[in-house]
Amino acid sequence: MESKDLTIIIVTFKSEKKIANCLKSIPPQIKVIIIENSNNIDFKKNIENQFSNSECILMGENKGYAAANNIGLKLVKTRYALVLNPDTILDKNAIENFLISAKKKDEFWLIGPANDQKKKINFDENGLAEVENLKGFAIFFNISKFKEKFFDEKYFLYFEEIDLCKSVKKENGKIFLDKSIKIIHQGASSVDDIDQEELEKNRNWHWMWSTFYYHKKHKGFILALILVFPKLLSATIKVLIFFLIFNKKKRNIYFCRLSGLFNSILGNKSWYRPS
């Protein structure tokens, strides 16, 4: 099994500074498809000029993590695909170890690195452990298992990988962690230049929208309402408190939480977008 069996997908949005180190850590013989959630032609030119193994596709607008990844995954012609965040850095043996694990567990649907796990996990003699969920910063796909049904595009941000894993398990699919795979995830944000207050508003809106949508999808409307009620109550109280003490910044953030949650409860699409 060789690197020609693999394509890497990276979704970006204003991530030119973040993605450079990621691309440098990827072996040059592996094809990389970058899905940029904008119409930034300069970003496309710079990336493709610097990294000859990379193709950058411009979405024209920010369609979110799930929809952009699906575009990339449907373009894959290889047996496997590795979805990466732009703020990741691969260990020199990461790709080889993914491919070795794929050979050992050819029935797998998804494989993820175990180096960012905080729970105690029991691994088998091959260094693999079957799990329910993976973290979204690095997911290795067995393309043939999915029949072009990957991420739920109703999500714009948050819960996409949890929902994906849930759907795989409903199909009795196998998900593994591999302790031999090392990938650094810098975290915080995959975005370079965006107003921090706007970023927080965006995160809070989508966290609440996606939380309710996920629970409704997998547990039903009533149970979803029960599960999010403490969050609804907390956000409402904090909006009132920050209104009374004239903290506009915090008030706006918690108002975004309420807005995201109410829009999800009412069945509205995930419409809030960072500027």
Describe the structure.
The protein is of the alpha/beta class and 275 residues long. The chain folds into two domains: 3-185, Spore Coat Polysaccharide Biosynthesis Protein SpsA, Chain A; 196-265. 43% of the residues lie in helices and 17% in strands. The protein contains eight helices and ten strands. It has helices at 16-24, 41-50, 64-75, 94-104, 160-170, 196-219, 221-244, 248-265; strands spanning 6-12, 31-36, 54-58, 80-84, 88-90, 108-113, 128-130, 138-142, 174-178, 183-185. The chain has an eight-stranded mixed β-sheet with strand order 3-2-1-4-8-6-9-7. A two-stranded antiparallel sheet has the order 5-10. Helix 2 links the parallel strand 2 (31-36) and strand 3 (54-58). The longest helix is centred in the C-terminal third of the chain and has 24 residues, at 196-219.
